[in-house]
Specification:
- The complex is a heterodimer.
- Helix content of chain A is 55%, strand content 13%.
- Chain A is built from 15 helices and ten strands.
- Chain A has a five-stranded antiparallel sheet. In chain A, strands 2-3 form a two-stranded antiparallel sheet. In chain A, strands 8-9 form a two-stranded antiparallel sheet.
- In chain A, helix 6 runs antiparallel to helix 11 and helix 11 packs antiparallel against helix 12.
- The radius of gyration of chain A is 26 Å and the shape is elongated.
- The termini of chain A are far apart.
- By secondary structure, chain B is α/β, with parallel strands linked by helices.
- Chain B has two domains: 218 residues, 3-Layer(aba) Sandwich (Rossmann fold); 85 residues, Alpha-Beta Plaits (2-Layer Sandwich), CATH 3.30.70.
- Helix content of chain B is 34%, strand content 28%.
- Chain B has ten helices and 14 strands.
- The longest helix of chain B has 16 residues.
- Classes of the chains: A alpha+beta, B alpha/beta.
- Chains A and B meet through strand 1, helix 1 and helix 5 of A and strand 1, helix 1, strand 6 and helix 2 of B.
- Strand 1 of chain A pairs parallel with strand 1 of chain B, so a sheet runs across the interface.
- Chain B: Belongs to the ABC transporter superfamily.
- Chain B: It comes from Streptomyces guryensis.
Chain lengths: 449, 313
């Protein structure tokens, strides 16, 4: 006669709690040299970069807020944010989230892990949380380090906003923090796409490349003359929409839409990765990615989400077309000019004036009025007019504008020389940068005419 | 008193799409037994080990592990440990860190989990603080075994644990498995190395194309009525050849595929005829310096049974 072992001690094995799995995954991630190097780089390199640039005579004026890096320490973290949104954050998401599942395939450790944890669900949650934690640590490093570098090397001065108004240091700090927080949403979307690629494509390097490829595609899309609804419906828009925090009033609607779209992408891509992961057969030694299922379960729902989001944004928002219209361009240029004129007045120790007294206005044309007066391009020309108390003749100044598809523009002063035609001002204390010579601004795409 | 079964499997079938990996497999493993699983590539060994570890669930049949019916994946009871398809190790961690992480994952205090003890058992104390990245295959196998030992298993499931082991490593692993079995742990191991199985296992199951073609004690397998080739090294090879030719039931084999050696004779015989040849040699004053099967009885049986199975398909 035989009997199977059965005593009081035999119970079904307990599944390992997520908290322990999370710690296990963190240990594995942090033990990797590349992750350690990334953490170190994210916490040190921005400070060194911002401090270094702050000491140079040439500033990265082609980057948003780059031209103000000598003026305030708060410009540094924003320059870093512009750079990070294009390059660093997609790469960080890729290296951390894009490899967190594929690494187990590469090392052949899935069965070991499953025997230890006994729950694919908990493994998924633990891995996702661990990669999220590391990504948050890296993003925090970029933000804190950039700010620290700027504050130490340049100082805690007011920041010139995108419409030329001055933000007090405290206000600037709060908005810099908000801008970085807003950039977390598209970073999470990219991280979720990384998770999806890592689950769906197994040990294939394509899984690792997916977040940068998606980010590149989103960047390219933002350069194209797409309708506003399509632009806002893409998960990468929040990497740009933080610009609206630095105008007065803040352009909140595009930012909220961008953040919401990114978060929906993050949730959907994570859920799809979860479903693909749970359907995987871990006893199949020949497994090398979900193959066709990756397209049906992974790609199609995201394509459907994009189409659905475009439709929702198109119906819910007032703007149509490119969102860059003549009226809005004129308003943005006139507003920024007025704010910056006051700054120039202070630098030259002239009698103070207010924006209301200046009553600035701009008359802008595109292609000398030969083409449709809307859309991106470097063929915008504006003539700004303003009044001064006690001066009977209004002043005028000319600007050439280069407006990109996302609504951002660079206004390049074309004279007169004593107002905006030269990059330096001769003040009583020496030469100083002329704030009216070149300035950045942006056109809010969603505002109706 | 009855025999306690750590594994009781009846009619286990498992398919992957159109491929039948296991086809009505029965398996009994008692406590304290080291049970070998043998079969050619694709026979279903790894699938069966995966079922025992709870990585998958059978499509049909009944499986009880440590007295607990297993009906769902990842439902194996407490006390089952091991690895299939190689041990899972993280190369960026040291041997000790790998074990500590596993201990903490299971809720144990890494300081009191017995990490030093299991490292000592598998002979890895000297490299405990080296990264697993630089470990040889044999060292990884031993660390995988140490990880399994850390859980104090009552059923240990090992897939090719002897791969890459040097003689010292093999001695450590054999010693550990023998001690575990002596303490009542059931061990199921698959291996292509018949010498290991013969040294360790009291029973074996031979699988071919997903079916059990033999299951039982090694002695039963060796005692099957089949001729084997034996290497006979003597002090006088020519006399030995003459005596072999004159002994009933003995055939001298000149193309046995063994290394050419003037002192060596290869004969094919049943055990009784071989006994008679040895007696004849001794009576004739020819010293017998070596007598061993060219391939082990288990290997011969394995080849016979699997070839029959292949021929019958």
């Amino acid at each position: 006669m035989t009997a199977t072992v059965a005593d009081d001690k035999v119970v079904s094995a307990r599944r390992v709690p997520v908290s322990r799995g999370y710690r296990f995954e963190l240990v594995k991630l942090v033990s990797q040299w590349r992750i350690r190097l990334l953490v170190l780089a994210c916490w040190i390199a921005p400070a060194l970069f911002v401090a270094g640039v702050g000491q140079q005579s040439t500033l990265p004026s082609d980057t948003l807020f780059g031209r103000w890096m000598h003026a305030t320490g708060w410009a540094g973290p924003l320059v870093m944010l512009g750079f990070a949104g294009t390059y660093a954050l997609p790469l960080l998401s890729s290296v951390v989230a894009g490899d967190v599942f594929a690494a187990e395939d590469r090392l052949g450790t899935w069965r070991y892990l499953l025997v230890a944890v006994r729950s694919p669900r908990r493994i998924f949650v633990a891995k996702s949380l661990a990669s999220l934690s590391v990504i948050l640590l890296l993003v925090a490093g970029l933000a804190v380090s950039g700010a620290a570098g700027g504050l130490v090397s340049v100082g805690n001065q007011p920041l010139v906003g995108l419409d030329g108004h001055l933000l007090a240091p405290g206000d600037a700090a709060g908005r810099v923090l908000l801008a970085w927080a807003a950039a977390l949403a598209p970073t999470l979307a990219l991280a979720a796409i990384g998770l999806l690629g890592s689950v769906a494509l197994g040990r294939s390097p394509m899984g690792l490349l997916l977040p940068p490829i998606v980010a590149l595609a989103m960047s390219v899309a933002q350069m194209l003359p797409l309708p506003v609804a399509v632009r806002l419906a893409l998960p990468g828009y929040a990497f740009i929409a933080w610009n609206g925090l630095f105008t007065s009033p803040a352009q909140i609607a595009p930012l909220l839409i961008g953040v919401a779209v990114s978060l929906v992408w993050a949730v959907l891509a994570t859920v799809l990765a979860y479903l693909l992961f749970l359907r995987r057969d871990f006893t199949n030694l020949a497994y090398d990615g979900a193959g066709r299922r990756a397209i049906t379960v992974g790609l199609l729902p995201l394509a459907a989400l994009t189409a659905g989001t475009v439709a929702v944004v198109a119906v819910a928002t007032p703007s149509t077309g490119s969102g860059i219209e003549q009226d809005k361009v004129q308003r943005s240029v006139a507003t920024a000019f007025a704010h910056l004129y006051r700054m120039q007045t202070r630098q030259l120790h002239r009698p103070a004036v207010t924006e209301a007294q200046l009553r600035s206005s701009a008359a802008c044309t595109k292609s000398d009025g030969q083409a449709a007066q809307e859309g991106a391009g470097n063929d915008w020309r504006c003539v700004v007019t303003w009044d001064l108390p006690g001066v009977p003749v209004p002043g005028t100044a000319v600007y050439q504008l280069d407006i990109t598809s996302d609504g951002r523009f660079v206004a390049d002063g074309d004279g007169p020389k004593e107002v905006n035609g030269y990059f330096l001002l001769r003040t009583s204390t020496g030469d100083a940068p002329n704030p009216l010579w070149q300035f950045d601004g942006n056109v809010e795409l969603l505002t109706p005419h | 008193m009855g025999t306690l079964h750590a594994v009781a499997a009846r009619g286990i079938t498992k398919c992957f799409g159109d491929v039948v990996a296991l086809d009505g497999v029965d398996l009994d493993v008692t406590q304290g037994q080291i049970h070998g699983l043998v079969g050619p590539n694709g026979a279903g060994k790894t699938t069966l080990l995966g079922l025992l570890l709870g990585l998958a669930v059978a499509d049909s049949g009944r499986l009880e592990i440590l007295g607990t019916p297993v009906g769902r994946a990842f439902d194996a009871p407490e006390g089952v440990a091991g690895f299939v398809d190689g041990p899972g190790l993280y190369p960026s961690l040291t041997a000790r860190q790998n074990l500590a992480a596993l201990a903490r994952l299971r809720g144990a205090d890494a300081r009191t989990a017995g990490i030093d003890d299991v490292l000592d058992q598998v002979g890895l104390t000297a490299v405990a603080d080296d990264k697993a990245r630089g470990f040889s295959l044999g060292m990884r196998q031993r660390l995988g075994l140490a990880a399994a030992l850390l859980t104090r298993p009552r059923l240990l499931v090992l897939d090719e644990p002897s791969n890459g082991l040097d003689p010292a490593g093999k001695r450590h692993v054999h010693g550990v498995l023998a001690r575990l079995a002596a303490d009542g742990t059931a061990v199921v191991l698959s291996s292509h190395r018949m010498d290991d199985l013969e040294a360790l296992c009291s029973e074996v199951t031979i699988l071919a194309t997903g079916r059990v073609v033999f299951s039982g004690p090694l002695g039963k397998l060796a005692a099957e009525n089949r001729e084997l080739d034996y290497r006979v090294r003597t002090s006088d090879p020519q006399a030995a050849r003459r005596l072999a030719d004159g002994t009933n039931g003995i055939r001298v084999v000149d193309d046995a595929g063994v290394r050419q050696d003037d002192e060596l004779l290869v004969v094919r015989a049943l055990v009784p005829a071989l006994d008679e040849l040895v007696a004849n040699l001794v009576r004739s004053g020819v010293a017998v310096r070596e007598l061993a099967p060219v391939i082990s009885p288990l290997e011969a049986a394995f080849l016979d049974l699997t070839e029959q199975q292949e021929a019958g398909r």
